[in-house]
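A common beginner's mistake is to predict each chain separately and then try to dock the pieces by hand. The better habit, illustrated here, is to supply every component at once so that their relative placement is modeled jointly.
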Amino acid sequence: MLITPAIVALQGIALSVAGTVLLASGFAGRILRRWDIHSGSELQLRMERQTYLISTLLGFALGAELLSLLLFVHTAESLSSQFVGAMCATGVLNVNAFGFPTLLLKIAVFFLAALWLLLNRVDNRGYDYPLVRVKYGLLMVIAPLTVAEGVVQTSYFLGLTPEVITSCCGSLFSSESKGVAAELAGLPPWPTLVLFYGMAGLILIAGLLFLRWLRLGPLFATSSLLGFGVAITAIIAFLSLYVYENPNHHCPFCLLKVGYDYVGYALYLPLFAAAALGLSAGVIAPFRRIASLQAVIPSEVRQLTALALIGFGLFYALATWLMLRSNLVLLG
Amino acid sequence: MIELTEVSKTFNQNQPNECRALRGVSLRLERGGVTVFKGPSGSGKTTLLTLVGCLARPTAGRIALDGRLLSNLPERFLTDVRRHTFGFVFQQFNLIRGLTVLENVMLPAYPLGRPHRELMDAAHALLDRFGLAAKATSKVEWLSGGEAQRTALARALINDPAVLIADEPTANLDSALSREVLALLAELAAQGRTVFISSHDPLVFEATQINRVIEVHDGQIAGDRRC
Amino acid sequence: MRAFLERQRYLIDYTLAALLRRKTRNLGLLLVYTLLVFLFSSVLLLSQGLRREAATLLQDAPEVIVQRLVAGRHDLAPAAWLDRLRRIRGVSAVQGRLWGYYYDPAVKANYTLMVAPERGLAADEIVVGAALARVRQIGVGDYLGLRAANGQPLPLKITGLLESASELLSADLLLLSEAGYRALFAIPPDVYTDVALTVRNPREARTVAEKITLALPDSRPILRAEILRTYDAVFNWREGLAFLTLGALLLAFMILAWDKAAGLSAEEKREIGILKAIGWETGDILRMKLWEGALLSLTAFLAGYALAWHQVFYAGAALFGPVLKGWAVLYPELQLTPAVDMQLILVLLAVSVLPYIVATLIPIWRTATADPDAVMRG
Ligand SMILES: Nc1ncnc2c1ncn2[C@@H]1O[C@H](COP(=O)(O)OP(=O)(O)O)[C@@H](O)[C@H]1O
Ligand SMILES: [Mg+2]
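With all components supplied together, the output reads:
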């Protein structure tokens, strides 16, 4: 086990996120059992006040998770000199089997917390707490995930023994090796490029249709998530090559380095925000039939959708610009 | 416009010190005029006013404002109704020390996010009206009792509420100042606002043009007299 | 949107006024908060600076160094090795190096002596590091007398001072000619201290090293990457240790923050009661209190970070310097190069602002959910 400040900090964040979310779900459990909106009893009043605490705790969890996501990638990056064969974050995440699962759990918790907060935002505008069950049910899903994240992350750090020979992005994301990551890296540029821009078209069309017909929520939520997946694939398959101007460097993390002007932040922030907003808009839309939300949801959902489309737009614009700017010629 | 049906309020429910402050109160309150809630100390006047003014929710029963059911609304909606409909004047003036008269008057409007310029103008207009223009920038702790009560009145009116609720407004004032405040309340009623006063001070009854007196006793309505 | 912004502005206004009204009460917390950020960022900035210094220093170091081992100890390498190493595939250049240490009883310090053929020094000429010159109070043109291996004094003329980006390396350095070196230590002409290799493709360094152990069984190849790794490990370890020590302070800070947020004065409680009674909602109070935390955190963070920055980069890192540097006899004026590092800021946020929020969330919520009708019953 390595002890570095970043690892101490990450463990601290994981502990506080799991702690706050568990606390919140403790309150939520009672709310699910005892909630009675028609009662004026002191218990009901107390529970209604606890809803404020729960949403504050989840807001905190979302922020902490974002911090943790960034810090995790940076930490992996900075530890790369400690492991033989690791040139960047990818290699370090591959030191043991828990590296990538930790990252995926962090992303999952981030998306779910964002969805929860947006559900909460809508719920707060209905006069009869219309989404109480949905919201606190979702919380019951998020809570074990944060615990799992803490456990997996701890296993990962415990298993970080220097001098392990690892594979780095050079080999993990290279066309010759096997595995999901390598498959992504080995995707042929042309079809992937077509898929990438095809997805942009799909998101745009789905978004526009959804703005018109709100019952298309599931379509837009799915295309947002798919769009996120395709975007990550595209970053690994070819976008990173253009940024590094190196036909073999497929790493999605090196983008976050100073050396590339932190261009990764400019790419990932709108992408993550857009996917989270798009997913949430699609999930929230079906609740528009609830009487107290009829007036709220359409405008709210349209706003979220517009923001998601703007986010995807920013991402695609930047990605296109990066490819045009690059000196690398990948597609003859 | 405000209708209470079988409203009860119990404090410390299911505990040894349980206190039923209101028991099955049904009441209709109309728009306009001055209504006085009268009764001995501890009879439930303040509790009744907090329910009428959306400061608290009843333990049982229904409260409706202009036909809209309020008794089950979440706190944030209740607050929203309250700040647009009711202004409060308290027994203790309850001004925030360390802030100026002007700032105290503007406070209730902060959560509404009104444009700053417009809010300042509204506050100055109210201060002019209550003869406090010269005191606008002085800290509230230097005010005399009468000035403090007028500041509290200006603060209650900053969001232009239809209803003014005054809980024992004269309890902390000598009789001259009491008369002054009562005159102001009467004037507001004359201009079309609805005024609810709770009091057991006889001065209230002789000094003001009162439209209705509701007697509260032991958490129940003991008398209802229009004049 | 406009109303939203106005509302935030009003909340900030109110919070600022409230904070200023209770200056002395908040000052204590602010000071401790700033101190916490200051201590943490001092550790982080310092070790990050040292690490970067080490990396700069190793940048020009050869990818592979080959030493000879005799009975498990470093021994002089025969000149015949140079040719055999040159023949190994992947090696593009080979150079025999001469270096060593010299203990100077006058200042009770070790100098690092190195032969620098590229400087073309005459047998009695040397170039010395700035710190060395400072400690011995000598300059260009002066003579530095060293005691040779045979007991005779060997006067060497200083022809220059080392100007280096990295004082950590050059501080105690003394460059001399091959003839001077061999005379000083009485080293025969057919051996070297060790051999430096340049490898055509740095990624192949490891393979090259394996071939060397096969070709020269009594040799020990050392990779630059390995040295870097050791440096990093040492810094990480020391940094981690310093952090754990600061953990106690962090805990104390969290308790203080919790206590401040939970133990509101009667006056403050009354104020919040009034605000709720005149139309503020629980959410408004929550936001107001969160703004208060944000303002406090921002102030403490910027102040603490700026102070640490000054301390580490301009005031000589008196604090923690000895702990993290560890071997600092000759480096009284180590000058680190400042640089902003994203990871460092993220870590700093995670160990100062995050714990503050954790400690205050529940007390703030308790405050915000006060009964709005409480003031009517005062
Ligand atoms: N928060 C509370 N907890 C417990 N008892 C309360 C509370 N508020 C009011 N009461 C009780 O309710 C009864 C009515 O009080 P109140 O409405 O203040 O009467 P009034 O204003 O007529 O003097 C009193 O017996 C009082 O002690
Ligand atoms: Mg009373």
